[in-house]
Design goal:
Blueprint (H helix, E strand, L loop, with lengths): L1 H22 L3 H13 L1 H8 L2 H15 L6 H29 L9 H13 L2 H9 L1 H11 L1 H30 L3 H31 L1
Helix pairs in contact: 1-9, 2-3, 2-5, 2-6, 2-9, 2-10, 3-6, 3-9, 4-7, 5-6, 5-10, 8-9
């Protein structure tokens, strides 16, 4: 009876963290929204699963290696991520400009979108912090009690995160289909959001390094 209760506790904990990770604004979610507005949800969908590619090495690093590496490593990753996000922002701004001038908006292939999403996630401090402070400790705690608890917690986290992210993309795809004027406005807003987030990462990372 107690074991079944523990499984539900770890499942709900993982699902809660997964939902929070999906809905909070971040480099990956903003990029996926931007691509959905440009190319539609079908071409963007594979990129939703980019954490399956990036989080394996990140999890291993956080659980076994990261604690022995310099703390500034995350700050340098944050700065590199900020620069890459600014690059993506400039591309979104170019798409907005092309649509405003009635020029064709270049659409990225699913493979290119997935590649960019992988780079964004590797350079995003979020997964490192999440695995170091939340998911990693939850997994280790559950694993020590009963291996299935750790597996359930991580499975609940990723399943909920992916389902929520897909739902968000579908909502923005529906907004995109409402007409070119609304699509252009949303693309412009996504470019601004990416630019602001990139600058935030650069500034906060740089200030932390200089302290």
């Amino acid at each position: 009876m107690q074991e079944n209760l523990d499984i539900w506790v770890y499942l709900l904990s993982g699902m809660t963290f997964g939902f929070a990770a999906a809905v909070q604004p971040g480099p990956l979610s903003l990029y996926l929204i931007s691509q959905t507005l440009r190319s539609g949800w079908k071409r963007t969908l594979p990129a939703v699963f980019s954490p399956l590619i990036t989080d394996g090495p990140i999890a291993v690093g956080c659980l076994f290696i990261l604690s022995k590496l310099p703390v500034n490593l995350l700050l340098y990753l944050q700065i590199a991520g900020g620069l890459f996000i600014l690059f993506l922002s400039s591309r979104a701004a170019k798409a907005w400009k092309n649509q405003k001038e009635n020029l064709p908006v270049p659409e990225e292939s699913s493979g290119q979108t997935l590649f960019n999403a992988v780079i964004v996630n590797f350079l995003n401090p979020g997964p490192y912090l999440g695995w170091s402070l939340i998911i990693g400790p939850l997994f280790l705690k559950g694993w020590k009690e009963n291996q299935i608890n750790g597996i359930i917690a991580v499975s609940g986290f990723y399943l909920t995160m992916f389902v929520t992210m897909i739902a968000i993309l579908l909502l923005f795809h529906l907004a995109r289909e409402r007409g070119p004027r609304l699509q252009r406005t949303l693309i412009g807003l996504s470019a601004i959001a990416l630019g602001l987030f990139g600058m935030y990462q650069l500034i906060t990372g740089g200030i932390s390094i200089l302290r």
